[in-house]
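Re: the 112-residue chain
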Amino acid sequence: KQWYQRRVRGEQGDDYIELREFRFFLLSLRQYFEYWVAFCRADTSGDQRISLEEFLSVRDKIELWVGEVPDMEAEFRAIDKDGSGTIAFDEFCDWAILKNLDLEDDDDDIAQ
């Protein structure tokens, strides 16, 4: 009943995207899609996790996306926050945001 009352009064809670928030929502969605594409390219086994071996095997791609990574094994351990020995998508996103990951073949200019 509270949801209905808020809607009738025109007060939308945090469960809704208001028109003024919509552009930011779309840009954020696009950015996370870019992270998903990068994650899938690194996850060569397709098991929804990146192992150390996979991470090391895509070094050239990763350095193209984020710049030079001097110690790949230390970087992997830093990304693997839960110590599982693999990188999950949420861990990858946290790292990608910090590193300003940018795919080499995306269309960044379309979001402008």
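The beta strands are 50-51, 86-87.
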